[in-house]
Model the fold of this input.
Amino acid sequence: MHSSSYFYIIIWFLIPFLFGSGSSSSDSSAKSSLDSLLQQYAFRELTGKRTRNGVPYDAHVPSSLTGVKVSAMILKTHILKRKVCGYYKNFFIPSGIIEEPYVKKLVLVYQNLANWSSFYYPLPGYTYLAPVFGILAYDAHNLYAKYLRDLDIQALEDPISIKFPYVQPAPEGSSPKCVYFYSNNFVQFGHVKDGNICETRVQGHFSVVAEVKVAPSPPPKANDTAPSPSPIS
Done:
């Protein structure tokens, strides 16, 4: 794809933020557009070269998304179901993974949204202690395809583990929480294991956050109290 085409794609997924980013439908559209764009960049690393199954291939993203990291890995689905795949970037992939609908091979696209995490996944009342990591599955039948709909994957046995290399300390009075963003705009919270690990049984986007507690307003000082009304003469 020519650079001018990528320019228009980037403008397209930024439109929801330029014209009314407050609605949930706009947020959902922006996330889907970003996923589609990153899927295309990830798939580019799998075309025009000899690739091996089970090997991650890091993709290059445009300068407008500096900091974002994307990778792609092809896997045969019967391997996912029967064998432990181990760590793929920050995700530990156990055995017992199935996909819906069925495909012979799939591509797991890894995302690290880095400093763009709160931009694409705003969470009022919370602060991010780690970047948003994402993992999405796509049919590997046509590596030149665009705007693919992601597959649904599910861990039937052990859960998928997400390891965050560095988790910032939580604000005083708050505790770290795992946050799960799923494709249906459903947000769920969970417990952090061993200080930096979250677990899931399905694909999506994940991070560690802490609630921001608003301090109560201090009582008014004596000289700040409202004056008593003057008696009526």
